[in-house]
Amino acid sequence: MASIEHVSPLAPKAFPDLPEIAGARFASVEAGVKYAGRMDVMLAHLAPGTVVTGVFTKSATRSAAVLDCQDKIGDDSDLGAAILVNAGNANAFTGKNGVHSTKAVTNAVAETLGLPETRVFSSSTGVIGEPLPHDRITAKLSDLSERLSADGMAGAAEAIRTTDTFAKGSTRTISTSNGDVKIAGIAKGSGMIAPDMATMLVYIFTDAKIDRAPLQAMLSELNERTFNSITVDSDTSTSDTLLLAATGQSGVDVTNDADFKACLHAVMLDLAHQVVRDGEGATKFVEVSVTGAATEADARTHALAIANSPLVKTAIAGEDPNWGRIVMAIGKSGAAADRDLLTIRFGDILVAEAGWVSPDYTEDAGAAYMQNASIQITVDLGLGESSSTVWTCDLTHGYITINADYRS
Amino acid sequence: MASIEHVSPLAPKAFPDLPEIAGARFASVEAGVKYAGRMDVMLAHLAPGTVVTGVFTKSATRSAAVLDCQDKIGDDSDLGAAILVNAGNANAFTGKNGVHSTKAVTNAVAETLGLPETRVFSSSTGVIGEPLPHDRITAKLSDLSERLSADGMAGAAEAIRTTDTFAKGSTRTISTSNGDVKIAGIAKGSGMIAPDMATMLVYIFTDAKIDRAPLQAMLSELNERTFNSITVDSDTSTSDTLLLAATGQSGVDVTNDADFKACLHAVMLDLAHQVVRDGEGATKFVEVSVTGAATEADARTHALAIANSPLVKTAIAGEDPNWGRIVMAIGKSGAAADRDLLTIRFGDILVAEAGWVSPDYTEDAGAAYMQNASIQITVDLGLGESSSTVWTCDLTHGYITINADYRS
Description:
Two copies of one chain form a homodimer.
Chain A: E1 24-29, E2 41-46, E3 51-56, H1 64-72, E4 81-89, H2 95-113, E5 120-127, H3 134-138, H4 141-146, H5 153-159, E6 168-176, E7 179-188, E8 201-206, H6 212-225, E9 241-246, H7 258-277, E10 285-293, H8 296-308, H9 310-317, H10 323-332, E11 343-346, E12 349-353, E13 356-357, H11 363-369, E14 374-380, E15 386-393, H12 397-405
Parallel strand pairs in A: 4-5, 8-9, 10-14
Antiparallel strand pairs in A: 1-2, 2-4, 3-9, 6-7, 7-8, 10-15, 11-12, 11-14, 12-13
Helix pairs in contact in A: 6-7, 8-10
Pathway (chains A, B): Amino-acid biosynthesis; L-arginine biosynthesis; L-ornithine and N-acetyl-L-glutamate from L-glutamate and N(2)-acetyl-L-ornithine (cyclic): step 1/1; Amino-acid biosynthesis; L-arginine biosynthesis; N(2)-acetyl-L-ornithine from L-glutamate: step 1/4
Catalytic activity (chains A, B): L-glutamate + acetyl-CoA = N-acetyl-L-glutamate + CoA + H(+); N(2)-acetyl-L-ornithine + L-glutamate = N-acetyl-L-glutamate + L-ornithine
Organism (chains A, B): Shimia haliotis
């Protein structure tokens, strides 16, 4: 496995100070699933009254834990619940044994905590194709349950890391006339796990009061504009999981609260951006916005074509203001575009318009802009009113080194 | 522009000995469009009786020359014809000036050779967004027309290179009871053209006798299994062009001749493979076959998902038998797949079956196989009878170096 010597140059300055969420307790432990000398299993316990919602990878080769979560996520129960996550082994492409391991873990958690097995969710991230040594996890459950504490979320953010170069957390507090509502979340992603792809795992907790169905609808909608709008290398994990649990213990109903939705969006976007900022080998954070599209789907198709283009991503790595490659990406995307109506901007710099380079544009101005650590690319198609924004990183020698030079 | 110091390690041993095609004459010249000290313009003259067929990039931001060719390609005329190609400037994303430059070149060729302008086809490859200095090309036309010769095809293969590391040619001869029929073709592609994407240009000539419509149908069908089945980095040029001209001068009618079709297929596949073998930074030639699919479209979607996956391509570069990334690529492709029915092979080595690694597979065997310069990946989906094969190369530090480290 690749040794991670450096923290990403795009990492936030510090891990945030996560608040306690009433009704949620956390513990982490060294179980030795694969790694030695570090925490690799986290347990979250959620009090009765908690609703749990989630979104999952659309991969056709989903892992056993993802399939198990999907089976359980529609349950309207408000009994207590638990989330168990291990790092080091993804329990993916492990056939019937994988299903057995997931059941062994979730059943043991249910028994230890006195919960129905249908309220225990699990995730696994790490190598694929190797049997999950689930006994190493279940052997630690009584230890974990004894050490559950309200201030354990930061430790959980550490335990779910694989080769992430930094732990990822985010929080917002909403002040309402009925009192404060807190949201806090952790994530892992974009670290390479030999011999596997990057996996994104996200767990968000709030003390808001809200029914499962409207919370699920809100989560699914916001997911499209956050985690489903980031791309590192266009590859999709078999294990991507986002769980959102609302304990209700603030007593503040947020069912139609726009502030709550805005703050949940902010936490999700912050965590999604942190995943991109930890992209393998990333040296640039890139926002791609496409405006003036006939439909939102067209805008998104163009934005992802630009964000996933190896030629665009290598140009950004080389600090090359190569707008020709953006034209190419738009052309290949398959969505509607008229070459002679395109307007392209780098930040505020007008680069190209009306089918040709702008007369005021200079390569020097473009090259100077490309030296920033955060790059904004905006393309107006001149065809309609729809738009879409996605986020990505550059494609560097670091990506090749992490993914090719080290043997699994 | 990147300096190309080395010939691709995947290059054929030598350029083939291309036969003369009766009715086709060629000339090349140093016009100084961008490069100095090398040929950069080629002219092909085709005798009366020649039919011309073609296929072109599907990019929505096609260059002026491509749009002009597409306007002309359906013409059933059998007057003489000409093809003019320049390297160094793609005349793409150049607005109305680009259309003017293409017309200036094709009109001048028509006048010089005494042809209708509708029978003059042109291609441009090189930098985009810069005006084409078409006067440098038209100034050389009388020189070119005087030097047209039947043995000039190899020189033409040199003249259309941009940063290709080797010239590309292929030929086959079909023996029939009515005499021999010859096919010979040249191509350029996958060299990087700062600040532009790789462009693929292919010109094939035959002395076969056949009407335009059946030849066009044959070309379009074979194109799907050859040039449309290769991928270097999933990016699509604005200028990709394939022209096939049949002079008829062998007198042998090949309208329903299966041998002719097979040999045309062989020439096209050989040239397509040479383009992949010259892929930027390529060190491995990779064939991806997907069998057992419910539909051919599904098989192709899976095969391209594997061939375009940066994680699969970097694993191959690292000689890592990382079958987990192949499972990932199948999962993300969006086409039908059942994780537990997948069979994966590296060459003849059974790697995974029935949703898990094969009990007989060893990492040592996989790693030894990955040291080959040519890699075969076969995935059987176990769902149906359809299949698809595509070809690609690995993703290496060389690709990043060519595309990121050198400024345009």
